[in-house]
Structures are given as structure tokens and as C-alpha cells.
């Protein structure tokens, strides 16, 4: 997306839609959302984190919790607040 004037850009976190949906979001659903938004596969994300594709899948399906250390790494990769994954 090309934004010619930053004043025209709206962060989706500030939209009414997001404010309605946010309480339903979980660390796992945020992980799926941001990974998909960045067009990354589970394998690609796993390689960046030094874990297997299965670990990513387990976190996305809530079979494995996201540790604080992992949340920090995910926040760096996706350039978002660590709170999204805690």
C-alpha cells in the first residue's frame, strides 16, 4: 500500500471494527493474523524463530502456549506490541 500523505493513513487498531473485535482476539489468533498478513508460511516463521513448523502450528492452535520470550521475538518480527502475543 502506498500512502502519499500520512494524515490519510488510518491504523486499523484505531478503527471501530477493531475495537469491537479486539476482545475476541487471542495470542494464537493474533499469531495467525500477523503471519498471514506478512504472507509467511509456518515454515518461514519457524526458520526466523529457530523452531519447527510444528511448534508454530501448535501455538496457532493453542496446543502450546506462547512464552514471554517467544512473544518478544514475534513482536520484533511483526513490528507490533508484545501484548498482542501475551
Automatic annotation (TrEMBL):
- Which UniProt keywords are given for this protein, alphabetically ordered? DNA-binding
Name any one GO molecular function.
DNA binding
Q: Where in this chain does the record put each HTH cro/C1-type domain?
A: 31-85
Q: Which CDD domains match?
A: HTH_XRE (cd00093)
Alphabetized InterPro entries for the sequence: Cro/C1-type_HTH (IPR001387), Lambda_DNA-bd_dom_sf (IPR010982)
* Record's protein name: Helix-turn-helix transcriptional regulator
Amino acid at each position: 500500500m502506498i500512502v502519499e500523505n500520512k494524515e490519510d493513513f488510518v491504523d486499523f487498531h484505531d478503527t471501530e471494527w477493531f475495537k469491537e473485535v479486539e476482545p475476541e482476539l487471542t495470542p494464537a489468533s493474533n499469531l495467525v493474523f500477523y503471519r498471514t498478513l506478512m504472507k509467511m508460511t509456518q515454515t518461514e516463521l519457524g526458520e526466523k524463530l529457530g523452531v519447527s513448523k510444528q511448534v508454530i502450528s501448535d501455538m496457532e492452535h493453542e496446543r502450546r502456549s506462547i512464552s514471554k520470550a517467544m512473544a518478544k521475538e514475534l513482536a520484533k518480527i511483526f513490528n507490533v506490541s508484545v501484548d498482542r502475543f501475551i
